[in-house]
């Protein structure tokens, strides 16, 4: 039976079984010891909220102290090449095969490569921010840990809720897409392999057991070890690269330059290119999973920036080339929005090539699920280490060096959703969650560079906050203006753009930097993070009002959970060394988190 060493309170060691299940493992905090204790905790909710909302963690806590919560360490076994392939596997899925034709046909026309370039630029900006923070705070928590250090517990909690929502919805969506592409590969209708249950409501009446099997299979590989999973992903990525090379070779060998200019390179104008960029952006999501592997990287300061930025740069070039091959091979008005590459190949006498495309999409989704299972479990592990969710899910298996419970939790949640739901409703919530977190990470990086608790004076803090408010406010203004009835008038863009430049220039020349990076730093500070804020908020504005309503509902549910559970668990965790000792002090963080 797998076990781990733990203190017994008498100076010796006792062996604790990994496979255990008790109330103390899920709720070790004093606030949940009895119903009476919980009632007392609820009565103290307001002062506890004051304490937690105004608190920030530290680099040492996130990348050091909290690791003890897992009882066993995650293993450092990955190089920058492993991270680069993990980035490729997590990002290059079915999106480029599905979205390219759709957006070329209805939004961008032959200019679809520019849409991919714009979306890739935005994603690359975010990857720069992630790279610096991952080297400074090499924690499995990724963006959650960065926000907890720089923006405090409440912002980190909201990010945690959105991360877990993304994990479940994203994995479920990939699982159901896997079934659809398998059906296409064998020449069947997309829903042919699903079970229709008329008694259930529309949108939930097509059961997908294949998606459940695929999710369980990829997660089983993920818990076997990061080294093995990385090796499998690298081999799968080699297959994906071969398929992409085939698409590019065939596409460019049949390229007709007149397809790019007939009737126009910009048939839908610049607005169409930006609309397409907002949609194809989702082909780039998943790179943040690489940042969660920093704790398992041999040299995070070198390997994370190299792996993350090299993979995102290469993926941007590949996407632009693939989209150019499509619109060069076939006139955009003739592109099939649902099966763009397969139909384009068939028009050139290669009907069999649709199977290659379907195989490429299947491979991409499988790699996405595999790397996603790794990254999502690491996020969950760090969140559990802070006790925002039960610390049971932070435990790392002593033999495999992987968070088995966290992986199982995400997988079971995704499997339940994938079995029943078509995800039409949840997809937009996942999209807005991703952009929300990316924008917060860019803000967190600016805070890290320009504010240091205990050394930044009040005047310096006010100066920084004033310029930061100009950057964020003008970014929101540009997004709102672009999506209003005034979008066609240039004075608004000039005004908001001038405010953004003034705010960013103020940070560059008028605000004092309080901290410099130890190993790797984002170039052109603060321009790149400020531009990342602007691009993510701009893309958020492209989503409809219904997405914001759903996002607001999810946020209210998250805050309700925080008030009823999260704030009390984290309060006990932070004060465990003061007046609220726990029965087992070895499983809680010692010392209060440093306040702002």
UniProtKB/TrEMBL annotation:
It holds the Pfam family AA_permease_2. It is found in: Membrane. InterPro entries: AA/rel_permease1, CAT_C. Signal peptide: none annotated. The chain crosses the membrane at residues 77-99, 111-133, 154-175, 210-228, 235-253, 265-284, 305-332, 352-375, 404-423, 429-451, 463-484, 490-510, 522-541, 547-567. Residues 520-569 form the Cationic amino acid transporter C-terminal domain. GO terms for cellular component: plasma membrane. Gene3D superfamilies: Amino acid/polyamine transporter I. It comes from the Eukaryota. Coiled coil: none annotated. It is a multi-pass membrane protein. Keywords: Amino-acid transport, Membrane, Transmembrane, Transmembrane helix, Transport. This is Cationic amino acid transporter C-terminal domain-containing protein. It comes from Eleusine coracana subsp. coracana.
């Amino acid at each position: 039976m797998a076990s781990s060493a733990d203190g017994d309170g008498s100076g010796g060691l006792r062996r604790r079984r990994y496979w255990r299940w008790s109330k103390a493992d899920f709720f070790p905090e004093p606030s949940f010891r009895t119903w009476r204790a919980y009632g007392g905790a609820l009565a103290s909710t307001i002062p506890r909220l004051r304490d937690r909302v105004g608190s920030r963690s530290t680099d040492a806590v996130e990348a050091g102290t909290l690791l003890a919560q897992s009882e066993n360490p995650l293993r450092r076994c990955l190089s920058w090449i492993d991270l680069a392939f993990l980035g490729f596997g997590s990002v290059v899925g079915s999106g480029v095969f599905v979205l390219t034709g759709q957006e070329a046909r209805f939004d961008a026309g032959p200019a679809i490569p520019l849409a991919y370039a714009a979306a890739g630029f935005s994603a690359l900006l975010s990857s720069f921010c992630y790279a610096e923070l991952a080297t400074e705070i090499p924690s499995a928590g990724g963006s959650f840990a960065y926000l907890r250090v720089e923006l405090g517990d409440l912002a980190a909690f909201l990010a945690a809720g959105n991360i877990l929502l993304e994990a479940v919805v994203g994995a479920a969506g990939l699982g159901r897409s896997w079934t659809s592409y398998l059906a296409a590969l064998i020449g069947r209708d997309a829903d042919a392999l699903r079970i229709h249950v008329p008694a259930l409501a529309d949108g939930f009446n097509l059961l997908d057991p294949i998606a459940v099997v695929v999710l369980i299979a990829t997660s089983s590989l993920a818990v076997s070890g990061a080294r093995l999973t990385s090796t499998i992903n690298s081999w799968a990525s080699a297959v994906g690269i071969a398929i992409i090379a085939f698409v590019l070779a065939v596409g460019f060998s049949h390229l007709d330059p007149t397809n790019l200019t007939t009737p126009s390179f910009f048939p839908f104008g610049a607005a169409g290119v930006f609309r397409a960029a907002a949609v194809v952006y989702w082909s780039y999501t998943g790179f943040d999973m690489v940042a969660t592997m920093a704790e398992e990287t041999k040299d995070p300061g070198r390997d994370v920036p190299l792996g993350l930025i090299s993979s995102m740069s290469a993926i941007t070039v590949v996407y632009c080339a693939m989209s150019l091959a499509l619109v060069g091979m076939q006139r955009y008005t003739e592109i099939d929005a649902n099966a763009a590459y397969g139909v384009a190949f068939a028009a050139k006498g290669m009907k069999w090539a649709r199977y290659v495309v379907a195989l490429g999409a299947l491979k991409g989704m499988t790699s996405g699920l595999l790397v996603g299972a790794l990254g999502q479990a690491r996020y969950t592990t760090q969140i559990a280490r802070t006790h925002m969710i039960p610390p049971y899910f932070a435990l790392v298996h002593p033999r495999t060096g992987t968070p088995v419970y966290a992986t199982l939790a995400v997988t079971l949640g995704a499997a339940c959703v994938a079995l029943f739901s078509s995800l039409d409703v949840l997809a937009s919530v996942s999209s807005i969650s991703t952009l929300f977190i990316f924008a917060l990470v860019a803000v967190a990086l600016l805070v890290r560079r320009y504010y240091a608790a205990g050394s930044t004076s009040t005047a310096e803090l006010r100066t920084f906050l004033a310029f930061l408010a100009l950057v964020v406010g003008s970014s929101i203004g540009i997004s709102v203006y672009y999506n209003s009835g005034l979008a066609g008038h240039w004075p608004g863009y000039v005004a908001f753009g001038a405010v953004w430049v003034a705010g960013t220039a103020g940070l560059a020349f008028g605000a004092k930097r309080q901290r410099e990076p130890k190993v790797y730093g984002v170039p052109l500070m603060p321009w790149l993070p400020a531009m990342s804020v602007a691009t993510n908020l701009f893309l958020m504005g492209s989503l409809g009002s219904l997405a914001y309503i759903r996002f607001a509902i999810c946020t209210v549910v998250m805050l309700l959970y925080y008030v009823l559970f999260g704030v009390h668990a984290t309060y006990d965790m932070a004060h465990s060394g003061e007046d609220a000792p726990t029965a087992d002090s070895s499983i809680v963080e010692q010392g209060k988190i440093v306040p702002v």
